[in-house]
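Pilot study result, target chain (308 residues):
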Amino acid sequence: MALSNLALFGGAFFTPVLVGKITHTIGWQWSFYLVAIFAGALLPLVFFFVPETAFNRPDNQYVEAFENGTSHHLDSHHQSKNESSPDTSNPHSFEKHDRSRNGDVAPLTITDPPPKATFAQSLLPFNGRKTNASFFKLLLRPCPLFLHPAVLWACLIQGTLIGWTVMIGVVLAAIFLGPPLWFSEVETGYMYAGPFVGAVVGFVVAGLLADWSTKFMIRRNKGVYEPEFRILLVVPQLVFGCVGLYGFGVTAQHVGRYGWFLPDMFFAFEVGGMVLGAVASALYIVDAHRTLSIPLNNPSAEVKVADQ
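Predicted structure:
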């Protein structure tokens, strides 16, 4: 999850470093020419080497057993005390029993995913629908999901710092191209090296703390995992984000006194906090709402696009 966010945000902040030099050397038009060239070169690679990985999953793939008021995820690779004998007619499937809150026990059949498609099949432009829901239901489903507490929280966590990041990018040229520093396009583009470093640092911190903090909380919770443990990543997000925002505001207001380095450093802190928030919210949604993880992440993606 941290690596995917680094690819998104890191690429977004490394590109201006190159675009400033390109604009100053061969003209701004070449920024768009190069976009078209790279997009044309990547299109056949995507077509041939990025296959569709979605498939129809059974409704009971993600099941939780409730015992003594505590939720435990069933693991299809380990047998529990409520597991029945495997189905001898299908060596790849077996039944589990789900103990609901009222004590009833219901058998659950868990099967392997369908066989992997061949390379020729993966090139088909259409290989069937991946859901039985109607098109209009899928189209409108993100709208009410904005009222879901987890989605609303994720949108605020991600959208706030993404919005401030875009705002800093808008005012960055106005601050440094004019007096008192009189930066050129190349020097202004180089100012995005700091946010790129911040995205890398945020990726490293998120990768180190995501699983460590979760394991720490599991030990404190007597070995029981809860999806809310993923929310702990918002603590370093708060530190990085607030330091970056307030620091950039103070130093950018008096750029003649502080110079270019301090605003760029605080910009890097703010971007690092943004990456941490994106990772925290995505991990929590995936772990807490597995059956709805895809539709619940759609509103968050829409907020990212709207902010940018």
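One observation from the pilot: Residues 149-177 form the longest helix (29 residues). A full batch analysis is planned for the follow-on phase.
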